[in-house]
Amino acid sequence: MQILESYNEYKDMIRGFREKSRRPFSNVYYVPEDIERYIRLGRVSFERTESGIIFYFDEEKYYRVCLYVNEKEKFSIEKREKKILVKNVFQEGKKRENLLCVEQRLEELGFKKAGTSFKIRGEVKNLFQRCERMKKFADMLEKKGFHCVAADLSMLEEVEALILDSGVIKDYQLNYWTDEEKKRMIKEGSYLCMVNDKKQICAVGGCIIKNNTTKGVAVAVREEYKMHGLIVALAYHRLKWLYDNGFESCQGWILTSNEPSIRYYQSLGYEFLNEYTDEWVLEADTGYMDEKFESI
């Protein structure tokens, strides 16, 4: 793999391949500013082959791979020292032939489909107006000593550990953030926590805040506080926070197999969009580093 040096280099590579292959397959869903961010951080590598270009976005715990290929030619993705994730976005019942070809090739390369999710979206004002019952529940928990607070920097490490340990997010779903970016996210209110009367964190909800929209990331509850209704209270406080701070919309992704969450968000009035994503995962090669040292 070679490190991508600049966004202009990225654009030149794409332009050159388009001239060679008029209708290439691509699952690049990053917006330009996100691609520029990863390049600036030195976290984008690439492999160029006859069949196309494979981009590796280093997310610390895994590689997120974006393809720019002629799907009729057999591209290759080798196992590496980290898991590799490929995400393909599509509309229900409308998988194109080129996507089906790519999926077949991923299976041949050893990738396994880890899950399928679909997108939800809600208008904050409408959602907040419908959460009177949630407010009553949150008020009842507050009388029992559970309060909602915005996480500060001193809580960041514990918050991250709680989300990771919960298993709600897999290791191949965590985005890479620098320490400075994490500090900014804390200051912007990305993490809300439910704490008890001893100021201990019992549950946490995280989101990414961008362009007057929030994207839900995860909600995690400590094992000993499950079945207390903290998720409901946390959802209410997040909607109130969004409403009070002038946000217009919020969105997220739900696994198609997660029926309880689907019913829950339906009851809140979220809009279910016809936008799906498949996650394909290639497990890490545990002997990769040994092979690297042997070849030196």
Q: Helix segment count?
A: 10
- Which parts are unreliable, with pLDDT below 50 for 5 consecutive residues or more? none
How large, in whole angstroms, is the Cα Rg?
21 Å
> What percent strand?
25-35%
Largest sheet: 13 strands, mixed
The helicity comes to 25-40%
Task: Report the strand count.
Answer: 13
The rough form would be described as elongated
Question: Between the first and last Cα atoms, what is the distance in angstroms?
Answer: 16 Å
Could you provide a short overview of the structure?
The chain is α+β, with helices and mostly antiparallel strands and about 300 residues long.
What topology emerges from the helices and strands here?
Layout: E1 2-3, H1 7-20, E2 25-26, H2 32-40, E3 44-49, E4 52-58, E5 62-69, E6 83-90, H3 97-108, E7 112-123, H4 124-129, H5 132-143, E8 147-150, H6 156-166, H7 179-188, E9 191-195, E10 201-210, E11 213-221, H8 230-244, E12 249-255, H9 259-268, E13 271-282, H10 288-295
Parallel strand pairs: 5-6, 11-12
Antiparallel strand pairs: 1-3, 2-5, 3-4, 4-5, 6-13, 7-12, 7-13, 8-9, 9-10, 10-11
What does this structure look like?
- This protein is an alpha+beta fold.
- The chain is 36% helix and 31% strand.
- Strands 1, 2, 3, 4, 5, 6, 7, 8, 9, 10, 11, 12 and 13 form a 13-stranded mixed sheet that branches.
- A hairpin with a 3-residue loop joins β4 and β5.
- α5 (132-143) packs across α8.
- It starts with a strand and ends with a helix.
